Amino acid sequence: MITIKKARKIYPSKKGEVKAVDDVNLEVKEGEIFGVIGYSGAGKSTLIRMLNGLEIPTSGSVIVAGREVSKIKGAELRKARQEISMIFQHFNLLWSRTVADNIAFPLEIAGVPKAERDKRVKELISLVGLDGRGDAYPSQLSGGQKQRVGIARALANNPKVLLGDEATSALDPQTTDQILDLLVDINKRLGLTIVLITHEMHVIRKICHRVAVMEGGRIVETGHVLDVFKNPQQPITKRFVQQVTEPEETKETVDHLLDRYPHGRVIQLTFVGEGVEQPLITNLIRKFEITVTIVQGKISQTQNGSYGILFIHLDGEEEELDNAITFIGQHEVGVEVISNG
Ligand code: ADP
């Protein structure tokens, strides 16, 4: 659905030039939910704006739904934009128009007759869960409801690709989850390809199939979300993964555990998938003459399976402890020894 080849965007700046997007290659398949994550200034907005022709690359090509959007202009570009729609962090609604009129707006521009427009708006209002709110004005809605209007409006012309520019960054965590659930629902029901840019790994983990990590205008790592979580390669990716896997109290926990367990080893296990940890721990107890205690743990359920982080205390003879840790290392889990008592 999307192919980006050797895309670059260079802006002039006082110091010479800024490579906002630097030699980016990317493929997004039809029906995929693809995430692009990076800190502020990484080049995400520039990249996503290239997908709907709002930004023309300095070099390289951007092909979306069979059209080279980096080369088209005028009426052809307007047509392409109906197929590649976007939702925004601050919703970009028309404040003087009702919910129904906001959603109808792109249909009006496309010249859809009134009767058909009304029917379509009704369907869209229902699809995004805003039944009964068609006559409300944006100022009368909550943030989550405003984004539902943004989504309905973006879907009005049956796009092939939906782009999200930090679409949940202005929302509280609970509302974020509801909006992400809605996007998954739409992706499943309509088979719509979705590309989201975000600086929040939570968003990636909850709904994306694949992810690209951006830093300094480049994509430094790409992969299936589960693989990236299991085995992040780049330091920046590790930091993003820690954003969601480390409980907030981890640092305190570590200090606390070092005090509590002066002997033996405290290890941290990180794993993805259902029922990974239990057989491993059972085997440890069976195979080695050690005591095993789970001292703290957190397992969270996500769209892609479960993700867990456990602190475990092992105690016994030195040699047995070393063998046990080697044994754990042979399994598909992340293991980090945090105390060598
Ligand atoms: P992100 O969305 O990841 O925060 P951006 O794509 O907005 O990153 O910006 C990438 C880099 O390009 C930044 O250094 C930013 O200052 C620069 N940049 C973005 N847009 C422009 C512009 N129109 N003119 C000059 N520099 C820009």
Automatic annotation (TrEMBL):
Location of the ABC transporter domain: 5-241
GO molecular function: ATP binding; ATP hydrolysis activity
Cleavable signal peptide: none
GO terms, biological process: amino acid transport
Keyword annotations: Amino-acid transport, ATP-binding, Cell membrane, Membrane, Nucleotide-binding, Translocase, Transport
Any one GO CC term of the record: plasma membrane
Keyword Transport appears in the UniProt entry: yes
Family statement: Belongs to the ABC transporter superfamily.
Name of protein: Methionine ABC transporter ATP-binding protein
Upper lineage: Bacteria, Bacillati, Bacillota, Bacilli, Bacillales
